[in-house]
Amino acid sequence: MRDDAASSAVDVTREDAECPVLAERSDENEQEVDEDVEEIEEEVGKESSIVAEYFPGNLDETPSARNGYLTERSDRFSMLSVAGDAAMPESLPILLVLFACLIAALLGALVAGLHTMIKYVGCPLGTNGCNSFSGYEYEKKGFLLVKALEGYVPEAVVNVVMAMVCMLAIGIVADVFPERYGKQVLGGGTVQSLLAVAAGIPIAFRCAALRVVIMALYFTGGGTMGGDGPTIQVCTAVAGMIGWICGIRAPRTQSLLASLGFCCGFASSFNAPLSGILFAMEELSHVSSRLTTRVICIILVGSIVSTAVMRGLLENKVLFKAVYPDNLEDMVAGGSIETIFGKSMWMLVSIGIGLLCAFVGYIFHKGFGFTHWLLTKKVYECCPRYLVFMILGGMTAGIGALVFHLTGLRGVWGIGIKDLGEVLVQNPNIKAVDLLIFALGKLGAFMLGVSARFPGDTLEPVLISGGFIGGFVGKVLPDSVLGEEANAACEIFGMVGLFASCFRFPVTPVVIVLELTGTRTYNIILPVALSSFTALAVSNHLFPPILEQILHQDGIDLEAVAELAEFADDEELSMRDLEEAEARSVGSHSHSEKQVEGEASQDGSHFETKRTNSMESWGQRAGRHSTFQVVIGRLEESMFDVSSHDRTDRRRASVMEQVTSRPGLTLEVAAAVADAATAASTDVD
């Protein structure tokens, strides 16, 4: 039946092509199509150049991006390209789940190692948890350099000099290595990971290794930004490289592996598995259309496994242990108006804190934009990057010195976990003005770092600064308004509010704070969610998210890159469908049946007969497939299956575009050919 449809469609095509009127009309259509193609190719070329800067060597060098997007992206074995004879059920493939769990376990161990490294490199200055915050063992190891120079050099000078030396070294390394390395090792790491998900290209292992070295240098110098973004990038790179080594190289499957690495790194780095999967649903779903329900389920189990391994190697420690009133559960027990949001509805202060966080986020947005413009348009034109890094490193450490002098808080030097922990346990010695000074100092140092693309994360500084802003509000308002021991709740409201304002995730900040601060925080879930909603709603009218601003400054459109990768996928698939339909119309029945056997089942997986034949010839030369090849093939097959939507309409539209660009075809004929080509790859006998 499929052969008859294809044959009749091609016969009608030939008859119409002989008609002069139809031929003239088709010439006009062809001219219009060519103009559209030129516009598309111009846009595709722009996005291709962006991808080429971050992943050199992975793009086709031919002038037309439509003729081939990626090189060396076919799968190594024929088993990777051929789906089964029948459609797989909707249940999760066990082999794929096991493969994801193995990768997740490795990533959990990797995160534990990176966190331990960050902690130990902070020992000379007593930062990043190498102090009393992590217990007596690290308290003895902390402040090694400061103690050695005590009485000779002030602590502030030690921190400033260390920051300048380390940032100078980072700048020199970034300038000595090729530019493609600088693209991957500078910045927070989140953008590079999202780009890997969108493009379906793995981050090179050399870049990941250099990123680890840069991380160590940055945190040795007391860098004020976080370590979770670089950790996530390394996890994304390792997950992609595992697939590449195994022969899983297709863009779609590489995108899925990058998503798995991203979410496992996020979950285990924050010790927050639910936040990892929510981040995938709220952010990665905008980058990749391949995140189906079954893919998200696999990412969920991967997040659980990676977090469990990390906890086994380190410990299941709440990052910030908030201290609430003993009667917190009674305050929100319900049953009356005063037991929903606390007595006198005091918890509704979360709305005001959300508004304040939106205003702070707007001020940060303006300062960040101006600082980045000043650096890129003025400073870098007259000074080399390594000198700018050294000066800015000294300035951020200088801000930390000023904050330390005024408040006694060291948190601008390093990530600042210890100081936020002290605030959340309600240190009575901390004053409201001290909290405000720290928040402004942390945001100022963070602004300098992210504007220059220092190799640190944007997530933790925002959480920590938001906690201090909320704590400031809690200290300023009298006890008669908030009640006793309400400061911890205000700090939680501030953390969630500033995170939602800066990143525009409505649910992720709520869940991540629950996972970071302990189970009792769930009692204030309603005002926490109100703070997130208020900050997000107001910020949407004022300024774009930080990540979006960074992408715009770097000239990256993640959705366009993802569309380019999927366009290449569909283009290759549609061309092969069309060629197979035409071949069946003129070929023998036996030859057609041989091709049909090589087609993918149901969703028309885009590794079809043409590639199958070449792979089978490789397999015949090798003699047989090894067990490893069979296993990897089943994995690839499962990954295509779980990430497949119903793509029949999209594929038919792409075939239509190909057919109508040929001379002498009417829309009716093109539709017939498109229907035949689409049916040929989706029908199951």
UniProtKB/TrEMBL annotation:
- Membrane topology per record: Multi-pass membrane protein
Annotated localization: Membrane
What the entry lists under InterPro entries is as follows: Cl-channel_core, ClC, ClC-type_chloride_channel
- Where does the source fall among the domains of life? Eukaryota
Instruction: Cite the SUPFAM superfamilies for this sequence.
Output: Clc chloride channel
Q: Where is this region: Disordered?
A: 1-36, 578-620
Whether Protease counts among this entry's keywords is no
Molecular function, one GO term: chloride channel activity
Segments spanning the bilayer are 94-114, 156-174, 194-219, 231-250, 256-279, 291-314, 345-365, 386-413, 433-452, 492-514, 521-543
Q: Where is the composition biased (Acidic residues)?
A: 27-36
A Pfam family annotated for this chain is Voltage_CLC
Task: Recite the UniProt keywords alphabetically.
Answer: Chloride, Chloride channel, Ion channel, Ion transport, Membrane, Transmembrane, Transmembrane helix, Transport
Q: Which GO terms describe its cellular component?
A: chloride channel complex
Q: What is the protein name for this chain?
A: ClcA protein
Q: Which organism is it from?
A: Symbiodinium necroappetens
Q: What is the lineage of its organism?
A: Eukaryota, Sar, Alveolata, Dinophyceae, Suessiales
**Gene name, Swiss-Prot/TrEMBL:** clcA
